């Protein structure tokens, strides 16, 4: 039986964590594959989504960098056939471990989820060393996976030497989406609401989102804005909404393990990020045939085919333009069937998991 080990910091909400869970849940259905998920801390809301057959290895580490010796010990003792890590820091940790193992080493697969040259700007101190480490250490991986064509191209430019990088989109669990979307939502939201789903962090450009919504309300006062997610900016954003006198129309739900019932019933999906590799909310919106209005980050441009499959603003700070695009999206939504077909053609879990299985045969 083949043993696949996957490494993520925790089960907190995030694209890398959700991808790992969906991949593990799909792989474990194969009777010839055993899956271990290795985490620094076995906690977080996404843990509830994990198949009970998947084994969780809790390293009980307070910081990711403290996991190096425990991961090394796990590999030497359990001898996994493949070791898959996700995102910058876990990828680097994994490759450092690879260097330290002499007698036995699994094949290391690193999965790049973001444009590290954009997002590391928010990491203090250590951030300035990450580009150098990625440039050199990533070449030591047996396989590199990028979650979008944009990330693949960006990473190829950053590496010291040419390396084969395979683009595999994140697997989406259709059955979960179907089941969870049937659940009811708060009745006071009514039928007219705009939806944001994601972390409440600086890179998501959420003060801009609130400014846009205030402008939008001037012409369409009967709409509400639902913000699903948690993060360090939550309290500040709530106070900012109050200062704009729009708090009666803005709902901060906090983290929800199930956003699908909201997506299904929303009027429009909004994304205002400065940087996205593969925005999961846009992919999930396509499943429901929902129109998206987004800022022109690389991930959104790729998924929305440069504005053919959704509405893209020309900048990240033009409030009037984005408010107008919301109005256009409501008046002239993208054809629902076209979006659903795009989802089936590119993002169904069957297609993406099959690509991972092919990789696990090499």
Q: What key attributes describe this structure?
A:
362 residues; alpha/beta; Rossmann fold; 2 domains; 7-stranded parallel β-sheet; globular
Report on the architecture of this protein:
Helix 8 links the parallel strand 8 and strand 9. Helices cover 40% and strands 17% of the residues. Helix 8 (206-217) crosses helix 13. The model has no long low-confidence stretch (mean pLDDT 93). It has 2 domains: 2-171 and 348-359, Glycogen Phosphorylase B (Rossmann fold); 175-345, 3-Layer(aba) Sandwich (Rossmann fold), CATH 3.40.50.2000. The chain starts with a strand and ends with a helix. It is globular, with a radius of gyration of 21 Å. The protein has 362 residues and is an alpha/beta fold. The strands form 2 sheets. Strands 3-2-1-4-5-6-7 form a 7-stranded parallel β-sheet, with helices on both faces. The chain is built from 15 helices and 13 strands.
How does the SSE layout of this entry go?
Layout: E1 2-8, H1 15-27, E2 33-39, E3 55-58, H2 68-78, E4 82-86, H3 88-100, E5 107-112, H4 116-119, H5 130-137, E6 143-146, H6 149-158, E7 165-167, H7 174-180, E8 193-197, H8 206-217, E9 224-228, H9 234-243, E10 250-254, H10 260-265, E11 268-271, H11 280-287, E12 292-294, H12 298-303, E13 311-312, H13 319-331, H14 336-346, H15 349-359
Parallel strand pairs: 1-2, 1-4, 2-3, 4-5, 5-6, 6-7, 8-9, 8-11, 9-10, 11-12, 12-13
């Amino acid at each position: 039986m083949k043993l696949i080990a996957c490494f993520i910091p925790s089960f907190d909400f995030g694209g890398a964590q959700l991808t790992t869970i969906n991949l593990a849940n799909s792989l474990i259905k194969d009777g010839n594959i055993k899956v271990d998920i290795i985490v620094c801390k076995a906690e977080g809301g996404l843990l509830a989504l994990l198949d009970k057959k998947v084994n969780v290895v809790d390293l009980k580490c307070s910081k990711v960098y403290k996991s190096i010796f425990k991961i090394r010990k796990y590999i030497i003792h359990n001898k996994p056939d493949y070791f898959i890590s996700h995102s910058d820091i876990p990828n680097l940790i994994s490759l450092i471990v690879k260097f330290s193992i002499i007698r036995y080493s699994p094949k290391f697969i690193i999965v790049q989820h973001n444009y590290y040259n954009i997002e590391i700007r928010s990491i203090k101190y250590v951030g300035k060393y990450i580009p150098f480490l990625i440039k050199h250490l990533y070449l030591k991986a047996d396989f590199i996976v990028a979650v979008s064509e944009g990330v693949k191209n960006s990473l190829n430019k950053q590496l010291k030497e040419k390396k084969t990088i395979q683009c595999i989109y994140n697997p989406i669990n259709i059955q979960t989406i179907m089941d969870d979307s049937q659940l009811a939502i708060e009745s006071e939201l009514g039928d007219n609401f705009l939806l944001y789903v994601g972390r409440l962090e600086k890179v998501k450009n959420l003060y801009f989102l609130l400014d846009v919504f205030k402008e939008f309300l001037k012409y369409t006062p009967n709409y509400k804005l639902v913000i699903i997610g948690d993060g360090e900016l939550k309290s500040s954003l709530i106070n900012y909404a109050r200062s704009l006198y729009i708090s009666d129309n803005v709902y901060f739900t906090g983290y929800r393990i199930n956003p699908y019932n909201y997506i299904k019933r929303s009027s429009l999906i909004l994304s205002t990020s400065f940087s996205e590799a593969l925005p999961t909310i846009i992919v999930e919106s396509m499943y429901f045939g929902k129109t998206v209005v987004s800022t022109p980050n690389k991930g959104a441009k790729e998924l929305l085919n440069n504005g053919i499959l959704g509405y893209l603003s020309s900048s990240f700070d033009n409030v009037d333009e984005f408010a107008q695009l919301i109005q256009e999206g409501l008046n002239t939504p993208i054809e629902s069937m076209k979006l659903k077909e795009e989802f089936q053609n590119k993002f169904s879990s069957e297609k993406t998991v099959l690509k991972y299985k092919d990789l696990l045969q090499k």
